[in-house]
Protein backbone atom coordinates (compact mmCIF):
# COMPACT_ATOMS: atom_id res chain seq x y z
CA UNK A 1 0.00 0.00 0.00
CA UNK A 2 1.06 3.61 -0.55
CA UNK A 3 2.17 5.68 2.40
CA UNK A 4 0.44 8.98 3.23
CA UNK A 5 2.08 11.38 5.66
CA UNK A 6 -0.93 12.47 7.71
CA UNK A 7 1.16 14.87 9.79
CA UNK A 8 2.53 16.65 6.70
CA UNK A 9 -0.98 16.84 5.19
CA UNK A 10 -2.17 18.75 8.27
CA UNK A 11 1.09 20.71 8.46
CA UNK A 12 1.98 19.63 12.02
CA UNK A 13 4.98 17.92 13.59
CA UNK A 14 4.84 14.24 14.49
CA UNK A 15 4.83 15.11 18.20
CA UNK A 16 2.02 17.68 17.83
CA UNK A 17 -0.51 17.77 20.67
CA UNK A 18 -4.15 16.78 20.13
CA UNK A 19 -5.06 20.48 20.35
CA UNK A 20 -2.50 21.43 17.69
CA UNK A 21 -3.90 18.75 15.40
CA UNK A 22 -7.46 19.95 15.93
CA UNK A 23 -6.51 23.59 15.29
CA UNK A 24 -4.55 22.70 12.14
CA UNK A 25 -7.47 20.68 10.80
CA UNK A 26 -10.02 23.41 11.58
CA UNK A 27 -7.89 26.08 9.92
CA UNK A 28 -7.54 23.99 6.75
CA UNK A 29 -11.22 22.89 6.79
CA UNK A 30 -12.32 26.54 6.74
CA UNK A 31 -10.25 27.02 3.60
CA UNK A 32 -10.87 23.80 1.70
CA UNK A 33 -14.23 22.38 2.76
CA UNK A 34 -16.07 21.76 -0.54
CA UNK A 35 -19.34 23.24 0.78
CA UNK A 36 -17.76 26.62 1.49
CA UNK A 37 -14.63 26.79 -0.67
CA UNK A 38 -14.10 27.89 -4.24
CA UNK A 39 -10.40 26.94 -4.15
CA UNK A 40 -9.17 24.78 -7.01
CA UNK A 41 -9.10 21.06 -6.10
CA UNK A 42 -10.71 21.91 -2.74
CA UNK A 43 -12.60 18.62 -2.63
CA UNK A 44 -9.51 16.46 -3.18
CA UNK A 45 -7.50 18.44 -0.65
CA UNK A 46 -10.27 18.28 1.91
CA UNK A 47 -10.71 14.51 1.53
CA UNK A 48 -7.02 14.07 2.21
CA UNK A 49 -6.99 16.27 5.31
CA UNK A 50 -10.23 14.75 6.66
CA UNK A 51 -8.70 11.29 6.33
CA UNK A 52 -5.58 12.50 8.14
CA UNK A 53 -7.60 14.12 10.94
CA UNK A 54 -9.92 11.11 11.30
CA UNK A 55 -6.87 9.02 12.17
CA UNK A 56 -4.72 11.46 14.14
CA UNK A 57 -7.53 12.78 16.38
CA UNK A 58 -8.15 9.29 17.73
CA UNK A 59 -5.36 8.26 20.17
CA UNK A 60 -5.70 4.56 19.38
CA UNK A 61 -5.64 5.07 15.61
CA UNK A 62 -2.85 7.62 15.91
CA UNK A 63 -0.80 5.07 17.86
CA UNK A 64 -1.44 2.43 15.20
CA UNK A 65 -0.52 4.92 12.46
CA UNK A 66 2.72 5.90 14.23
CA UNK A 67 3.68 2.22 14.42
CA UNK A 68 3.63 2.11 10.60
CA UNK A 69 6.79 4.21 10.71
CA UNK A 70 7.63 7.22 8.60
CA UNK A 71 8.10 6.90 4.83
CA UNK A 72 8.19 9.33 1.91
CA UNK A 73 4.61 10.16 0.77
CA UNK A 74 3.44 7.89 -2.08
CA UNK A 75 6.07 5.23 -1.40
CA UNK A 76 4.95 1.60 -1.35
CA UNK A 77 5.42 0.11 2.12
CA UNK A 78 4.43 -2.90 4.22
CA UNK A 79 3.25 -2.60 7.83
CA UNK A 80 5.71 -4.18 10.35
CA UNK A 81 5.19 -7.97 10.74
CA UNK A 82 3.35 -7.75 14.07
CA UNK A 83 1.24 -4.69 13.12
CA UNK A 84 -1.66 -6.73 11.71
CA UNK A 85 -1.78 -8.87 14.85
CA UNK A 86 -1.76 -5.87 17.19
CA UNK A 87 -4.14 -3.53 15.39
CA UNK A 88 -6.06 -5.38 12.66
CA UNK A 89 -6.83 -8.85 13.93
CA UNK A 90 -8.71 -10.90 11.39
CA UNK A 91 -8.26 -8.35 8.65
CA UNK A 92 -7.28 -10.22 5.48
CA UNK A 93 -4.31 -9.24 3.30
CA UNK A 94 -3.10 -5.76 4.17
CA UNK A 95 -1.50 -5.16 0.80
CA UNK A 96 -4.57 -4.93 -1.40
CA UNK A 97 -6.20 -2.05 0.47
CA UNK A 98 -5.29 1.61 0.92
CA UNK A 99 -4.48 3.37 4.15
CA UNK A 100 -7.95 4.90 4.64
CA UNK A 101 -9.66 1.48 4.22
CA UNK A 102 -7.18 0.01 6.69
CA UNK A 103 -8.21 2.51 9.38
CA UNK A 104 -11.90 2.24 8.46
CA UNK A 105 -11.50 -1.49 9.13
CA UNK A 106 -10.00 -0.67 12.50
CA UNK A 107 -13.15 1.31 13.33
CA UNK A 108 -15.39 -1.56 12.33
CA UNK A 109 -13.34 -4.01 14.39
CA UNK A 110 -13.62 -1.83 17.51
CA UNK A 111 -17.38 -1.66 16.97
CA UNK A 112 -17.55 -5.42 16.60
CA UNK A 113 -15.76 -5.94 19.89
CA UNK A 114 -18.19 -3.67 21.72
CA UNK A 115 -21.55 -4.46 20.25
CA UNK A 116 -21.49 -7.57 18.06
CA UNK A 117 -21.15 -5.08 15.27
CA UNK A 118 -20.55 -7.77 12.67
CA UNK A 119 -24.10 -9.07 12.97
CA UNK A 120 -25.77 -5.67 13.30
CA UNK A 121 -27.99 -4.43 10.47
CA UNK A 122 -26.14 -1.64 8.68
CA UNK A 123 -27.28 0.59 5.83
CA UNK A 124 -24.84 0.89 2.93
CA UNK A 125 -22.95 4.16 2.50
CA UNK A 126 -24.03 6.77 -0.02
CA UNK A 127 -21.45 7.65 -2.67
CA UNK A 128 -20.97 10.59 -5.01
CA UNK A 129 -19.50 10.64 -8.51
CA UNK A 130 -18.89 13.51 -10.90
CA UNK A 131 -20.54 13.21 -14.33
CA UNK A 132 -19.29 15.58 -17.06
CA UNK A 133 -21.71 16.14 -19.93
CA UNK A 134 -21.73 18.11 -23.14
CA UNK A 135 -24.52 20.65 -23.57
CA UNK A 136 -26.25 18.34 -26.09
CA UNK A 137 -26.14 15.40 -23.65
CA UNK A 138 -27.65 17.57 -20.90
CA UNK A 139 -30.34 18.90 -23.25
CA UNK A 140 -31.43 15.57 -24.72
CA UNK A 141 -30.54 13.23 -21.83
CA UNK A 142 -28.00 10.43 -22.17
CA UNK A 143 -26.62 7.25 -20.66
CA UNK A 144 -23.37 7.14 -18.69
CA UNK A 145 -21.20 4.37 -17.30
CA UNK A 146 -19.36 4.82 -14.03
CA UNK A 147 -16.91 2.88 -11.95
CA UNK A 148 -17.27 3.55 -8.25
CA UNK A 149 -15.08 1.95 -5.59
CA UNK A 150 -17.31 1.25 -2.59
CA UNK A 151 -16.47 -0.09 0.85
CA UNK A 152 -18.07 -3.42 1.73
CA UNK A 153 -18.02 -5.22 5.04
CA UNK A 154 -17.07 -8.87 5.39
CA UNK A 155 -19.24 -11.07 7.65
CA UNK A 156 -16.45 -10.89 10.25
CA UNK A 157 -16.42 -7.09 10.22
CA UNK A 158 -13.44 -6.64 7.89
CA UNK A 159 -13.64 -4.01 5.20
CA UNK A 160 -12.62 -4.04 1.55
CA UNK A 161 -12.93 -1.76 -1.43
CA UNK A 162 -15.04 -3.27 -4.22
CA UNK A 163 -15.32 -1.81 -7.75
CA UNK A 164 -18.94 -1.21 -8.83
CA UNK A 165 -19.85 -0.72 -12.46
CA UNK A 166 -22.98 1.41 -12.78
CA UNK A 167 -24.90 2.40 -15.91
CA UNK A 168 -27.24 5.32 -15.39
CA UNK A 169 -29.80 7.02 -17.60
CA UNK A 170 -29.49 10.80 -17.24
CA UNK A 171 -32.86 12.51 -17.81
CA UNK A 172 -33.11 15.40 -20.27
CA UNK A 173 -32.82 18.93 -18.97
CA UNK A 174 -30.14 18.52 -16.30
CA UNK A 175 -28.19 21.67 -15.49
CA UNK A 176 -24.66 22.42 -14.36
CA UNK A 177 -24.26 21.99 -10.60
CA UNK A 178 -27.30 19.76 -10.21
CA UNK A 179 -27.25 16.53 -8.21
CA UNK A 180 -29.08 13.39 -9.36
CA UNK A 181 -29.83 10.34 -7.26
CA UNK A 182 -29.52 6.72 -8.33
CA UNK A 183 -31.31 4.82 -5.55
CA UNK A 184 -29.71 1.67 -4.19
CA UNK A 185 -26.48 1.99 -6.18
CA UNK A 186 -24.20 3.08 -3.33
CA UNK A 187 -22.51 0.73 -0.85
CA UNK A 188 -24.11 -2.60 -0.01
CA UNK A 189 -26.04 -2.79 3.24
CA UNK A 190 -24.91 -5.42 5.74
CA UNK A 191 -27.02 -8.08 7.44
CA UNK A 192 -30.25 -7.04 5.70
CA UNK A 193 -29.65 -3.28 5.87
CA UNK A 194 -30.67 -1.20 2.83
CA UNK A 195 -28.13 -0.41 0.12
CA UNK A 196 -26.88 3.19 -0.05
CA UNK A 197 -27.58 5.59 -2.91
CA UNK A 198 -25.28 6.95 -5.57
CA UNK A 199 -25.41 10.73 -6.10
CA UNK A 200 -24.25 12.16 -9.41
CA UNK A 201 -22.73 15.65 -9.41
CA UNK A 202 -23.54 17.02 -12.85
CA UNK A 203 -21.08 19.27 -14.68
CA UNK A 204 -22.20 20.62 -18.05
CA UNK A 205 -19.67 22.12 -20.46
CA UNK A 206 -20.49 25.63 -21.69
CA UNK A 207 -21.90 25.81 -25.24
CA UNK A 208 -20.42 28.33 -27.70
CA UNK A 209 -23.89 29.63 -28.65
CA UNK A 210 -26.40 28.91 -25.89
CA UNK A 211 -26.36 30.23 -22.33
CA UNK A 212 -28.55 28.51 -19.75
CA UNK A 213 -30.73 30.25 -17.17
CA UNK A 214 -32.98 27.75 -15.40
CA UNK A 215 -35.02 26.17 -18.20
CA UNK A 216 -34.51 29.12 -20.57
CA UNK A 217 -31.75 29.50 -23.12
CA UNK A 218 -30.19 32.72 -24.42
CA UNK A 219 -28.53 33.16 -27.79
CA UNK A 220 -26.95 36.23 -29.38
CA UNK A 221 -28.47 36.92 -32.80
CA UNK A 222 -26.24 39.19 -34.93
CA UNK A 223 -28.06 41.16 -37.64
CA UNK A 224 -26.98 43.88 -40.06
CA UNK A 225 -28.24 47.47 -39.61
CA UNK A 226 -30.44 47.18 -42.72
CA UNK A 227 -31.92 43.87 -41.45
CA UNK A 228 -32.79 45.57 -38.16
CA UNK A 229 -34.37 48.54 -39.98
CA UNK A 230 -36.19 46.72 -42.74
CA UNK A 231 -36.95 43.49 -40.91
CA UNK A 232 -35.96 40.03 -42.12
CA UNK A 233 -36.32 36.32 -41.58
CA UNK A 234 -33.25 34.44 -40.35
CA UNK A 235 -32.49 30.78 -39.79
CA UNK A 236 -31.63 30.30 -36.11
CA UNK A 237 -30.09 27.14 -34.65
CA UNK A 238 -31.82 25.70 -31.58
CA UNK A 239 -30.76 22.54 -29.71
CA UNK A 240 -33.83 20.76 -31.12
CA UNK A 241 -33.23 21.88 -34.73
CA UNK A 242 -33.20 25.01 -36.86
CA UNK A 243 -36.13 27.42 -36.90
CA UNK A 244 -36.88 30.48 -39.03
CA UNK A 245 -37.26 33.58 -36.91
CA UNK A 246 -38.91 36.77 -38.10
CA UNK A 247 -37.01 39.90 -37.04
CA UNK A 248 -39.57 42.73 -37.13
CA UNK A 249 -38.79 45.99 -38.97
CA UNK A 250 -37.41 48.66 -36.64
CA UNK A 251 -35.75 46.22 -34.21
CA UNK A 252 -33.23 47.64 -31.75
CA UNK A 253 -29.98 46.19 -30.40
CA UNK A 254 -30.54 44.28 -27.15
CA UNK A 255 -34.14 43.39 -27.95
CA UNK A 256 -35.00 39.80 -27.17
CA UNK A 257 -37.10 37.68 -29.48
CA UNK A 258 -38.73 34.72 -27.79
CA UNK A 259 -38.97 31.24 -29.26
CA UNK A 260 -41.58 29.64 -27.02
CA UNK A 261 -40.85 26.09 -25.87
CA UNK A 262 -37.41 25.98 -27.51
CA UNK A 263 -35.53 25.95 -24.18
CA UNK A 264 -34.74 23.01 -21.88
CA UNK A 265 -37.36 20.32 -21.24
CA UNK A 266 -37.45 18.75 -17.84
CA UNK A 267 -39.81 16.10 -16.52
CA UNK A 268 -43.40 16.45 -17.59
CA UNK A 269 -43.63 20.25 -17.16
CA UNK A 270 -43.61 22.75 -20.04
CA UNK A 271 -40.29 23.38 -21.80
CA UNK A 272 -38.44 26.65 -21.24
CA UNK A 273 -38.05 29.30 -23.95
CA UNK A 274 -35.15 30.35 -26.14
CA UNK A 275 -34.45 34.09 -26.23
CA UNK A 276 -32.59 35.45 -29.24
CA UNK A 277 -30.93 38.70 -28.23
CA UNK A 278 -30.40 41.06 -31.15
CA UNK A 279 -26.90 42.38 -31.74
CA UNK A 280 -26.49 44.86 -34.58
CA UNK A 281 -23.19 44.26 -36.33
CA UNK A 282 -21.62 46.95 -38.48
CA UNK A 283 -19.25 46.19 -41.39
CA UNK A 284 -15.76 47.40 -40.48
CA UNK A 285 -14.85 48.16 -44.11
CA UNK A 286 -17.02 49.38 -46.99
CA UNK A 287 -16.14 49.85 -50.65
CA UNK A 288 -16.56 53.08 -52.59
CA UNK A 289 -20.12 52.40 -53.75
CA UNK A 290 -21.29 51.42 -50.29
CA UNK A 291 -19.54 54.43 -48.77
CA UNK A 292 -21.40 56.69 -51.21
CA UNK A 293 -24.71 55.08 -50.26
CA UNK A 294 -24.04 55.61 -46.53
CA UNK A 295 -23.15 59.24 -47.26
CA UNK A 296 -26.38 59.67 -49.19
CA UNK A 297 -28.27 58.08 -46.29
CA UNK A 298 -26.67 60.36 -43.70
CA UNK A 299 -27.58 63.43 -45.73
CA UNK A 300 -31.17 62.43 -46.26
CA UNK A 301 -31.90 61.16 -42.70
CA UNK A 302 -32.83 63.39 -39.77
CA UNK A 303 -32.59 60.49 -37.26
CA UNK A 304 -30.77 61.64 -34.13
CA UNK A 305 -30.06 58.94 -31.53
CA UNK A 306 -28.59 61.62 -29.18
CA UNK A 307 -31.55 63.94 -29.08
CA UNK A 308 -31.76 63.53 -25.31
CA UNK A 309 -28.17 64.91 -24.98
CA UNK A 310 -29.03 68.24 -26.51
CA UNK A 311 -30.39 69.98 -23.42
CA UNK A 312 -27.30 69.02 -21.37
CA UNK A 313 -24.88 69.94 -24.17
CA UNK A 314 -26.54 73.36 -24.58
CA UNK A 315 -25.89 74.33 -20.91
CA UNK B 1 -23.43 -10.36 -18.06
CA UNK B 2 -24.37 -6.83 -19.09
CA UNK B 3 -24.91 -4.20 -16.40
CA UNK B 4 -28.57 -3.16 -16.08
CA UNK B 5 -29.26 0.53 -16.62
CA UNK B 6 -30.58 2.57 -13.71
CA UNK B 7 -32.64 5.74 -13.85
CA UNK B 8 -30.92 8.77 -12.31
CA UNK B 9 -33.58 10.95 -10.69
CA UNK B 10 -33.89 14.71 -10.39
CA UNK B 11 -33.96 15.86 -6.78
CA UNK B 12 -36.81 18.27 -7.35
CA UNK B 13 -39.97 19.41 -5.65
CA UNK B 14 -42.13 16.72 -7.27
CA UNK B 15 -40.57 13.59 -5.81
CA UNK B 16 -41.03 13.02 -2.08
CA UNK B 17 -38.92 11.03 0.37
CA UNK B 18 -39.85 9.62 3.75
CA UNK B 19 -38.40 10.64 7.10
CA UNK B 20 -36.63 7.26 7.26
CA UNK B 21 -35.01 7.82 3.86
CA UNK B 22 -33.90 11.30 4.89
CA UNK B 23 -32.52 9.97 8.17
CA UNK B 24 -30.62 7.15 6.50
CA UNK B 25 -29.28 9.37 3.74
CA UNK B 26 -28.09 12.08 6.14
CA UNK B 27 -26.37 9.66 8.52
CA UNK B 28 -27.28 12.02 11.39
CA UNK B 29 -28.76 10.79 14.68
CA UNK B 30 -32.57 11.13 14.68
CA UNK B 31 -32.56 13.61 17.57
CA UNK B 32 -30.23 15.97 15.65
CA UNK B 33 -32.24 15.72 12.44
CA UNK B 34 -35.39 16.59 14.43
CA UNK B 35 -33.53 19.56 15.91
CA UNK B 36 -32.75 20.79 12.38
CA UNK B 37 -36.45 20.54 11.52
CA UNK B 38 -37.30 22.53 14.68
CA UNK B 39 -34.87 25.30 13.59
CA UNK B 40 -36.46 25.38 10.13
CA UNK B 41 -33.31 24.11 8.39
CA UNK B 42 -35.34 21.20 6.96
CA UNK B 43 -39.00 21.64 6.10
CA UNK B 44 -41.46 18.71 5.87
CA UNK B 45 -44.20 18.86 3.20
CA UNK B 46 -46.75 18.96 6.00
CA UNK B 47 -45.23 19.60 9.44
CA UNK B 48 -48.51 18.60 11.13
CA UNK B 49 -48.75 15.21 9.45
CA UNK B 50 -48.24 12.22 11.79
CA UNK B 51 -45.50 10.90 9.49
CA UNK B 52 -43.27 13.47 7.82
CA UNK B 53 -42.39 13.42 4.12
CA UNK B 54 -40.00 15.82 2.37
CA UNK B 55 -39.42 17.11 -1.12
CA UNK B 56 -36.50 15.15 -2.58
CA UNK B 57 -34.30 18.28 -2.70
CA UNK B 58 -34.03 18.11 1.11
CA UNK B 59 -31.91 14.96 0.71
CA UNK B 60 -29.04 17.14 -0.49
CA UNK B 61 -29.56 19.62 2.35
CA UNK B 62 -29.61 16.81 4.91
CA UNK B 63 -26.40 15.33 3.51
CA UNK B 64 -24.77 18.76 3.54
CA UNK B 65 -25.91 19.19 7.15
CA UNK B 66 -24.28 15.91 8.05
CA UNK B 67 -20.99 16.86 6.37
CA UNK B 68 -20.89 20.27 8.04
CA UNK B 69 -21.80 18.75 11.41
CA UNK B 70 -19.00 16.23 11.18
CA UNK B 71 -16.31 18.18 9.33
CA UNK B 72 -16.61 21.47 11.25
CA UNK B 73 -17.55 19.81 14.54
CA UNK B 74 -20.61 22.06 14.91
CA UNK B 75 -23.73 21.55 16.98
CA UNK B 76 -27.12 21.34 15.20
CA UNK B 77 -27.88 25.03 15.78
CA UNK B 78 -24.53 26.04 14.22
CA UNK B 79 -25.29 23.70 11.32
CA UNK B 80 -28.68 25.36 10.78
CA UNK B 81 -27.04 28.82 10.63
CA UNK B 82 -24.42 27.66 8.10
CA UNK B 83 -27.16 26.01 6.00
CA UNK B 84 -29.09 29.27 5.82
CA UNK B 85 -25.96 31.06 4.54
CA UNK B 86 -25.26 28.31 2.01
CA UNK B 87 -28.86 28.53 0.77
CA UNK B 88 -28.50 32.29 0.40
CA UNK B 89 -25.19 31.91 -1.48
CA UNK B 90 -26.84 29.32 -3.74
CA UNK B 91 -29.70 31.70 -4.54
CA UNK B 92 -27.27 34.55 -5.30
CA UNK B 93 -25.19 32.27 -7.56
CA UNK B 94 -28.36 31.31 -9.45
CA UNK B 95 -29.19 34.99 -9.91
CA UNK B 96 -25.66 35.75 -11.17
CA UNK B 97 -25.90 32.82 -13.61
CA UNK B 98 -29.27 34.09 -14.87
CA UNK B 99 -27.97 37.66 -15.28
CA UNK B 100 -24.80 36.48 -17.03
CA UNK B 101 -26.90 34.42 -19.45
CA UNK B 102 -28.85 37.55 -20.37
CA UNK B 103 -26.10 40.16 -20.63
CA UNK B 104 -23.07 38.50 -22.22
How would you describe this structure to a colleague?
The complex is a heterodimer of chains A (315) and B (104). In chain A, 30% of the residues lie in helices and 23% in strands. Chain A is of the alpha+beta class and 315 residues long. A four-stranded mixed β-sheet of chain A has the order 6-7-11-10. By secondary structure, chain B is mainly alpha-helical. Chain B has a single domain, classed as Multidrug-efflux Transporter Regulator, Chain: A, Domain 2. A two-stranded antiparallel sheet of chain B has the order 3-4. The model of chain B has no long low-confidence stretch (mean pLDDT 90). Strand 4 of chain A pairs antiparallel with strand 2 of chain B.
Given helix and strand content, the structural type of chain B is mainly alpha
Order of strands across the main sheet of chain A: 6-7-11-10
Shape of chain A: elongated
Distance between the termini of chain A: 81 Å
Low-confidence stretches of chain B: none
Helix fraction of chain B? 55-70%
> H/E element string of chain B?
EEEHHEHH
What CATH architecture of chain B do you see?
A: Orthogonal Bundle
Biggest beta sheet summary of chain B: 2 strands, antiparallel
Brief summary of the model shown:
The complex is a heterodimer of chains A (315) and B (104). With 315 residues, chain A is α+β, with helices and mostly antiparallel strands. Chain A contains 10 helices and 11 strands.
Write the layout of secondary structure elements.
The complex is a heterodimer of chains A (315) and B (104).
Chain A: H1 6-10, H2 18-32, H3 42-56, H4 59-66, H5 83-87, H6 99-115, E1 127-133, H7 135-140, E2 142-153, E3 159-170, E4 179-182, E5 198-204, E6 211-213, E7 216-223, H8 225-230, E8 232-236, E9 243-247, E10 256-259, E11 274-280, H9 288-300, H10 310-314
Parallel strand pairs in A: 1-5, 7-11
Antiparallel strand pairs in A: 2-3, 4-5, 6-7, 8-9, 10-11
Helix pairs in contact in A: 2-3
Chain B: E1 5-7, E2 9-10, E3 16-18, H1 19-26, H2 30-38, E4 53-55, H3 58-71, H4 76-103
Antiparallel strand pairs in B: 3-4
Helix pairs in contact in B: 1-3, 2-4, 3-4
